[in-house]
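Researcher: Predict the fold of PHP domain-containing protein.
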Amino acid sequence: MRIDLHSHSSVSDGTEPPADVVRRAHAAGADVLALTDHDTVAGHPEAVRALPPGMTLVRGMELSCRLGGRSLHLLAYLFDPDEPALAAERRRIRDDRAHRARGMVERLGRLGTPVTWEMVQRITGDSVPGRPHIARALVEAGVVPNVEEAFTREWIGAGGRAYVDRYALDAVTAVGLVREAGGVPVLAHPRASRRGYVFTDDEIARLAGVGLAGVEADHPDHTEADRAHLRGLAADLRLFTTGASDDHGTLTAHRLGAETTTPEAYEALLSEATGATPEP
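Model: Structure tokens for PHP domain-containing protein follow.
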């Protein structure tokens, strides 16, 4: 049984529509896929409609948070999407994303680049604009050779010349909101040092103490040493560990199914969810 619990569509910063993500996951041999777009559930209906017979979709979301002044991503699974408090935070984060994107485009203009808001809107389509869309605009405009080069201090990396900070939920508060909505919170890629997502054992233990259910250990950005350490830490904290591709379509070379979650961890996740059930 192949279970991939972290993927993105063009509803947030992936490059393919939700239906195509589901079809590609099926072609890659996935039996269970979680669609976890950033701060939105807008892609779920299309993904459900595209499900082939025998495949399961886990409704999820990757929630933008902050811990100790740093960005933290929290995977939320099988929560009630209509729960008012969490829905309100999703809207606030989404609205701020658009404001932030405009601010970065303005800064890029002052730096002399030909990137315009119209370019970013065309790349973004119907989704909420984010840094990956601006990075793609920088590539299209010939400012940088690839998306990775956009995420540096030269351009839109954290603290960079065109970087604009954004609203994000306090991570402890976010764990509580996901639980209150009947969902299951899992810490995303906590050792992804290349992208600046590195959290100490004490920080993870603090989140476990307020309701964190699991840790994403098997992730493409994690070394084997990272994975082994996270599994040991999770065992000590009585958390389950997940594995996932964190696929973003062409931006990550179509890697759906590259990392997977064990059936035992998946069952542990399902046992804690009260807000929703998988599809079908």
